[in-house]
Write a structure and sequence with these properties.
Strand content: under 5%
Helix content: over 70%
Mean pLDDT: 84
Number of helices: 4
Largest sheet: none
Shape: elongated
Length: 107
C-alpha cells in the first residue's frame, strides 16, 4: 500500500485527531497563560508536549495527500516531493531536539 493510499484511507480519522489535538493545545496555551509561574514535573512536561506533537503527526500525512493526490509525475512534482521530505526531516529534527532537551532536564 502506497503512502497516498494509506493517507487517503485514514483521512477522516486524521482530520478528527488533528482537530482534537488543536483544541487541546489551545486549551493548554490558555491555561498556561493564566498561570503566573509553572513548575513542570516529568509527567506534566510530557503532557504539555503531547498536543503539539499530535498535531505534527496528523499534519504531514494530510499535507502529503493534499499536495500529491492529483499530481502527474513531472519535474515540479519531484521538486515538491523533495521539499516535502526536507520539511518533514527538518521538523522531525526540531522535535528530536525538543524531546532530547526535555529528557536532559529531568523528564
Amino acid at each position: 500500500m502506497s503512502l497516498l493510499q494509506l493517507a487517503a484511507r485514514y483521512k477522516k480519522p486524521l482530520i478528527v485527531a488533528e482537530l482534537i489535538f488543536f483544541l487541546l493545545f489551545a486549551a493548554e496555551l490558555i491555561y498556561l497563560r493564566k498561570m503566573s509561574t509553572v513548575e513542570l514535573s516529568g509527567a506534566t512536561a510530557v503532557a504539555v508536549l503531547i498536543p503539539p506533537f499530535g498535531v505534527w503527526l496528523c499534519f504531514f500525512p494530510l499535507c502529503f495527500l493534499a499536495w500529491f493526490q492529483n499530481d502527474e509525475p513531472d519535474f515540479f512534482r519531484s521538486a515538491k516531493l523533495v521539499f516535502f521530505w526536507l520539511l518533514l526531516l527538518g521538523s522531525a529534527a526540531i522535535w528530536f531536539n525538543i524531546i532530547r532537551m526535555s529528557v536532559g532536564k529531568g523528564l
